[in-house]
């Protein structure tokens, strides 16, 4: 068995194990074969070196998922004031049953004009923006992990996600892990 097939077999066996289930230092063991391949001789082999970079980056991201969230443009001065007002309204009322009609009434525009403004300036709809704000708030609450007996279902429902399964799908798409994993890590660390 060659070094490459050994590496492939081990990677395939570990693929079903999530980063949260792995012992500390497991990422170092995973990088061992890559480090062997990354010898000075390999640096002169552009095809091999180019193939290693995404693997190394992927391994690091898998082991150390980011909790950095994108900045919300609500205070961006380049955006029209009406749009900033609508975004601010959404942020202030995210925990309530806010609708596009409520947003449009708050900024004295028609619902269609608000939709157009969001689409043109942000590349999204007001409904998607509301969902994004609520998902971010739920994420913050999961990261806080308190009170200790709080459940993902309670947090999801508090932020307007009636279907926990749909919330979990949206959460995983945005943050790269399940909401249960985030909450479990936060409560385990407390």
Automatic annotation (TrEMBL):
<dbReference type="Pfam" id="PF12833">
    <property type="entry name" value="HTH_18"/>
</dbReference>
<dbReference type="GO" id="GO:0003700">
    <property type="term" value="F:DNA-binding transcription factor activity"/>
</dbReference>
<feature type="region of interest" description="Disordered">
    <location>
        <begin position="1"/>
        <end position="26"/>
    </location>
</feature>
<keyword id="KW-0804">Transcription</keyword>
<dbReference type="InterPro" id="IPR018062">
    <property type="entry name" value="HTH_AraC-typ_CS"/>
</dbReference>
<dbReference type="InterPro" id="IPR050204">
    <property type="entry name" value="AraC_XylS_family_regulators"/>
</dbReference>
<keyword id="KW-0238">DNA-binding</keyword>
<dbReference type="InterPro" id="IPR018060">
    <property type="entry name" value="HTH_AraC"/>
</dbReference>
<dbReference type="InterPro" id="IPR009057">
    <property type="entry name" value="Homeodomain-like_sf"/>
</dbReference>
<keyword id="KW-0805">Transcription regulation</keyword>
<feature type="domain" description="HTH araC/xylS-type">
    <location>
        <begin position="84"/>
        <end position="185"/>
    </location>
</feature>
<protein>
    <recommendedName>
        <fullName>HTH araC/xylS-type domain-containing protein</fullName>
    </recommendedName>
</protein>
<dbReference type="GO" id="GO:0043565">
    <property type="term" value="F:sequence-specific DNA binding"/>
</dbReference>
